[in-house]
Specification:
Layout: H1 4-9, H2 12-21, E1 43-47, H3 54-63, E2 81-87, H4 98-104, E3 111-121, H5 130-149, E4 155-161, H6 169-181, E5 191-195, E6 214-218, H7 223-234, E7 238-243, H8 248-258, E8 261-264, H9 272-283, E9 289-292, H10 307-330, E10 339-343, H11 347-350, H12 356-377, E11 382-388, H13 394-397, H14 401-409, H15 419-430, E12 441-444
Parallel strand pairs: 1-2, 2-3, 3-4, 4-5, 6-7, 6-9, 7-8, 9-10, 10-11, 11-12
GO molecular function: oxidoreductase activity, acting on the CH-OH group of donors, NAD or NADP as acceptor
Protein name: 3-oxoacyl-ACP reductase
Domain Ketoreductase: 213-389
Length: 452
């Protein structure tokens, strides 16, 4: 689906009209292409007094081939940076928040288009005093505001890094820094990511971070699922693409394109989890990553909704995930170091008129992450979710024009996202190097104005 307004804005006449009338100005986003450098320019790394993360972060960036700017260069008004990374973990009270102003104020106009802002902090629950916890929680307001202020495709994120993982911080943190700095995170902004403890294994080749991994993708025949299968295969995964029999031709086309395998299965069938487990066991002996992407909509306002619409959406979008997880875990088909990623939605956070069934199911997915991730952590398995916002698919193409345009413009990027944006985010959470990232719900919404 083409966003004609965004295309027009890139023309000379369009830019003039946008400037004159103050219309939304969708920037051209930097997205990932294999072989791209991690960032298109130098990175300015700063730290609060007593910060504990700047040193390992600096080592990660240097090893990744990133040029770290000389702090003296920060005072050069003509110097431009690809990213600003600031370690705020040393801020222990509200007075110390002034250090954020001192770092970011002079650099507010120094970022290149599609630049990156990353603030590193300590989880408030791990802070040694109420004052420190207060100051660390304040970082969320900073990053979300920067994401709305800096414009030009700039994203801003807060990464809380556990103290418990300090000994392994370089490996645990690297996958998250690489994702957030790269073009893979083009439509992710204003998010809080928590890096904890867990098995994080760096790949031999960061261009193929899923080499040797068996990955199951449900709902893989079209849209986000098809994009996801392609991204995971590009990153080295052996993809098992699953969808309903009615989508068999499209599913086969996707599987053939990526050199994966296709499984036609209705996840609502009583024997579906068992049949899926038996297939994975006989063909692969395990599944390293399970991506629960399958989902449906059956929209009606609650007063007009029949019971079948309610039941089918809850069953496909939520209950089927629980049933599959139960069987795969019971049979030990997901090994230690495995990852589960579920697809939620911004509707599960903000709600949506005419989608009480859908919003309930997607909020339930968030509840699944909250409740099950601590249990799975004891088995060395991570569990996260992504929550897409307005993504350009065949489904959103059917939305009435005025509502569709509102969905596109009501975010910091002033445009809809692409299926590949969701796929890249799921890809990052699927990497073995992301094993210490668990219990997160990451919105892929261009920092939508809706919801939290």
């Amino acid at each position: 689906m083409t966003d004609r307004y965004a295309s027009f804005v890139q023309t000379g006449a369009g830019r003039a009209l946008v400037k004159r009338l103050g219309l939304p100005d969708p920037p051209r986003l930097r997205r990932h292409t294999p072989g791209d450098p991690l960032v298109p320019g130098p990175v300015l790394l700063g730290a609060s007094a007593g910060g504990r993360i700047a040193e390992p972060a600096g080592k990660i960036l240097t090893a990744a081939g990133v040029e770290l700017a000389d702090p003296v260069a920060a005072h050069d008004a003509d110097r431009r940076f690809a990213a600003l990374v600031y370690d705020a973990s040393g801020i222990t009270d509200s007075a110390g928040l002034r250090q954020l102003y001192d770092f970011f104020h002079p650099q507010a106009r120094s970022l290149l288009p599609s630049g990156r802002v990353i603030v590193l902090g300590t989880p408030p629950a791990e802070c040694g005093s109420p004052r420190e916890a207060t100051a660390q929680r304040a970082l969320e307001g900073l990053t979300r505001s920067i994401g709305k202020e800096f414009g030009r495709g700039v994203t801003a994120q807060l990464v809380y890094v556990t103290r418990e993982g300090d000994a392994g911080t370089p490996v645990s943190l690297e996958s998250t820094l690489r994702f957030l700095l790269s073009g893979r995170s083009a439509y992710v902004s204003g998010q809080v990511v928590r890096v904890g403890t867990g098995t994080a294994v760096a790949p031999a080749d960061w261009d193929r971070p899923l080499d040797g991994q068996v990955v199951l993708v449900t709902g893989a025949a079209r849209g986000i699922g098809a994009a996801l299968a392609k991204v995971l295969a590009r990153d080295g995964a052996q993809v098992v693409a699953l969808d309903i029999p009615a989508a068999g031709d499209e599913l086969a086309a996707v599987a053939n394109e990526i050199g994966g395998s296709a499984v036609q299965l209705d996840l609502t069938a009583p024997d579906a989890p068992t049949r899926l487990a038996e297939h994975l066991a006989s063909r692969h002996g395990r599944v390293d990553v399970v991506v629960h992407n399958a989902g449906i909509t059956r929209d009606k306002t609650l007063g007009r909704m029949d019971a079948d619409r309610w039941d089918s959406v809850i069953d496909v979008n939520l209950s089927s995930q629980e049933r599959i997880n139960d069987v795969l875990l019971e049979r030990d088909l997901i090994p230690a170091g495995g990852r589960i990623v579920s697809v939620s939605s911004i509707a599960g956070i903000a709600g949506n008129r005419g989608q009480t069934n859908y919003a309930t199911s997607k909020a339930g997915v968030i509840g699944l992450v909250d409740s099950l991730s601590p249990v799975l952590r004891e088995r060395g398995i991570s569990l996260n979710a992504v929550a897409p916002g307005f993504i350009e698919t065949r489904l959103t193409a059917r939305i009435p024009l005025t509502i569709r345009e509102a969905g596109r413009r009501m975010n910091s990027m002033a445009q809809g996202g692409l299926p590949v944006d969701v796929a890249e985010t799921i890809g990052w959470l699927s990497w073995p190097a992301s094993g210490a990232v668990s219990g997160n719900v990451v919105r892929v919404c261009g920092q939508s104005l809706l919801g939290a």
